[in-house]
Amino acid sequence: MTLMGRELIPIVLAIGTQLLMAGATKAHDPQVTTHHIASKAMNQERGFQVYLPASYDRESRSYPVLYILDGQQYFYNGVACEKSFTHFDRAPEFMVVGIENYHPQRLVSFSESHFLDFLEHELIPYIENTIDPMATVRFLAGSPLASL
């Protein structure tokens, strides 16, 4: 299955809808791990969670990555999307990365260049270097108020 052009539009729209509508529970999931980065760009420690698909195999294939803003609130909704989409063969398996943000003025935080530097130069390289070195397809999602 190719993820190009018009095929991406329904997937992106469906992810957005699922993020807003899904009420996923936060049950313990062995495919979920918690990580922290001492961010130089943000000048603070940043936490995030990573969900790996059921057939995850670092050595033999690449997985698209869905990065979720406000991961403390929407991460498990992204996991529910992955499980639902793959169960019904609507999308290939993908990883989910939920970026925590407890900043009191989080809406300002997402629009600052420091946050974009954190994403581009710290978080994405961390995911690609330690979890999936072949990950090249990326999606960014969050609530409408968390948009960049």
- Which regions have little confidence, pLDDT < 50, spanning 5+ residues? 21-25
Main sheet makeup: 5 strands, mixed
- Strand tally is 5
Helical residue percent? Answer: 25-40%
Number of domains: 1
Approximate shape: globular
In short:
The chain is α/β, with parallel strands linked by helices. It has four helices and five strands.
List the helices and strands and how they pair.
Layout lengths: L7 H14 L10 E8 L4 E8 L13 E4 L2 H17 L7 E5 L6 H6 L1 H18 L7 E4 L7
Parallel strand pairs: 3-4, 3-5
Antiparallel strand pairs: 1-2, 2-4
Name a few traits of the molecule:
single chain; 148 residues; alpha/beta; Rossmann fold; five-stranded mixed sheet; 4 helices
Describe this structure in words.
The protein has 148 residues and is an alpha/beta fold. Strand 1 and strand 2 (44-51) form a beta hairpin. The chain has 4 helices and 5 strands. A 5-stranded mixed sheet has the order 1-2-4-3-5, with helices on both faces. The longest helix is centred in the C-terminal third of the chain and has 18 residues, at 113-130. Helix 1 packs across helix 2. The chain has helices at 8-21, 71-87, 106-111, 113-130, and strands spanning 32-39, 44-51, 65-68, 95-99, 138-141.
